[in-house]
Design goal:
Bound molecules: 2-acetamido-2-deoxy-beta-D-glucopyranose
Structural class: alpha/beta
CATH topology: Rossmann fold
Helix content: 40-55%
Distance between the termini: 58 Å
CATH architecture: 3-Layer(aba) Sandwich
Shape: globular
CATH superfamily: Alpha/Beta hydrolase fold, catalytic domain
């Protein structure tokens, strides 16, 4: 009892001390976001304390929270929902109940969560995918993949690719009544990074008979080789995803080596032989003037550590590293970026790279948007900006798929 009271007291004190959080003035629903940011910050602080005490790892604690938020496959009056497996990979399929004479459109959705957390079962993703199926009268497939730190690159990518490959077979498309010429791959955050990599693969691999018609990337994370972009500097103390935390989680995708985390925080994690790759993420040429002004381009320090684990220089981790001849094969693309987001510049640079090679890109930038807004669409963490992003995404899909 005494211990519980002490913990509660400590939590309240921490919460209060974090209340003095400074948010940009233009943030919509200011007090809701303050509450959200304060809770996230307090939780992260406590999680780190508990990790230092050796009780449980921070990422295990967060995983437990994500699992509390999982939903069952519940059908409703419009959509039949079921969990199954595609090539051994868990998926949730949403099938509209309305009668249809023609084959339907399909959306494959890959969820975010920094490669460590989350599932299509989480309430936010389930509600988004159900909404998509209902609004577009389309088949939707939510894809799960094995997570870090138990599994490292390329497991996450391979799981997503295997599920997509399975779905794109003639007999499977026919079974679900899908039009092979009208398929989209979508995702958010790290899931959008995976969606980007999978789309690059499907469009260029002659083993795929059916290609993707369009891709939709919602605040995508698209590279790890430069960790000091203007958006990293501006969002060092970001609302949902501060820089230190983002780097800690993203590094778990590749390795458990703690020295890598420290090196990445100092932007000196890449080997000498990666020099030629920096042209693909050179923000001094790829970011629009508006986002780079006030910042001075400095090249990362190379060769200080010589880390060599798989994935470090791989386009399946950093799809921004794909060369122009590969990018030319990509389908019409929707990219949504948020101003208050550490990965903002990844998305902005991909817009430039794709436009430079003539790929048709629709870009929406949310001036007062925050990272992971789509995960806050269900009570009690309901943010209006999440609904706005959802509606922009659905409206683009409806016109283009
Ligand atoms: C089913 O679709 C109708 C018409 O679009 C809508 O009004 C209703 O809310 C939907 N039901 C659910 C459970 O989403
Ligand atoms: C990045 O672009 C700047 C010009 O804006 C150039 O001076 C620099 O050498 C480039 N660096 C790389 C690694 O491409
Ligand atoms: C890393 O490799 C480069 C050459 O590839 C070498 O010059 C440098 O000394 C190495 N650094 C370390 C820390 O081993
Ligand atoms: C572009 O990248 C692809 C795949 O990574 C590679 O096969 C191809 O040779 C590269 N093309 C050029 C011109 O470098």
């Amino acid at each position: 009892m005494g211990f519980k009271a002490l913990c509660l007291g400590l939590f309240c004190a921490l919460f209060a001390s974090h209340l003095y959080i400074s948010l940009p003035d233009d943030i919509e629903e200011y007090w809701k976001v303050v509450a959200l940011a304060t809770t996230a910050k307090t939780f992260t602080f406590m999680g780190m304390c508990i990790e230092h005490m050796g009780i449980i790892k921070y990422e295990e604690l967060v995983s437990m929270l994500f699992r509390l938020d999982e939903t069952q496959p519940v059908s409703d009056e419009n959509v039949t929902v079921m969990d199954t497996e595609f090539a051994g990979v868990p998926v949730r399929v949403y099938l509209p109940k309305r009668k249809s004479d023609a084959p339907r459109r399909a959306v494959i959705y890959i969820h975010g969560g920094a490669f460590c957390f989350g599932s299509f079962k989480n309430a936010g993703f389930d509600s988004l995918n159900r909404w998509t199926a209902n609004k577009l009268d389309s088949i939707v497939v939510g894809v799960d993949y094995r997570l870090a730190p138990q599994h490292h690159f390329p497991v996450q990518f391979e799981d997503c690719l295997a599920a997509v490959k399975f779905f794109l077979q003639d007999e499977i498309l026919e079974k679900y009544g899908v039009d092979p010429a009208r398929i989209c791959i979508s995702g958010d955050s790290s899931g959008a990074g995976l969606a980007t990599g999978v789309t690059q693969q499907v469009q260029t691999d002659t083993g795929f008979k059916h290609k993707i018609k369009i891709q939709a990337l919602l605040y995508p994370a698209l590279q790890i080789i430069d960790s000091y972009l203007p958006s990293h500097q501006e969002n060092e103390h970001g609302i949902i995803l501060p820089r230190d935390l983002a780097i800690k989680l993203v590094s778990l995708h590749l390795t458990k080596d703690e020295t890598f985390v420290e090196a990445m925080r100092r932007n000196e994690h890449m080997p000498q032989e990666s020099r030629h790759l920096f042209q693909f993420v050179n923000w001094s040429t790829l970011l629009p003037e508006k986002y780079r002004k006030g910042y001075v381009y400095t090249e990362p320090i190379l060769g200080k550590h010589n880390f060599s684990f798989p994935g470090l220089m791989d386009i399946r981790v950093s799809p921004l590293l794909a060369n122009d001849s590969l990018l030319q094969n990509l389908p019409p693309t929707y990219i949504l970026t948020c101003q208050y987001d550490i990965v903002r510049d990844d998305g902005l640079m991909y817009v430039s790279r794709l436009q430079n090679v003539g790929v048709q890109v629709t870009h929406d930038h949310i001036e007062n948007g925050i990272h992971a807004a789509l995960s806050f669409m269900t009570p009690p963490l309901y943010l209006h900006v999440g609904l706005r992003i959802r509606d922009m995404y659905i409206s683009w899909l409806d016109k283009n798929l």
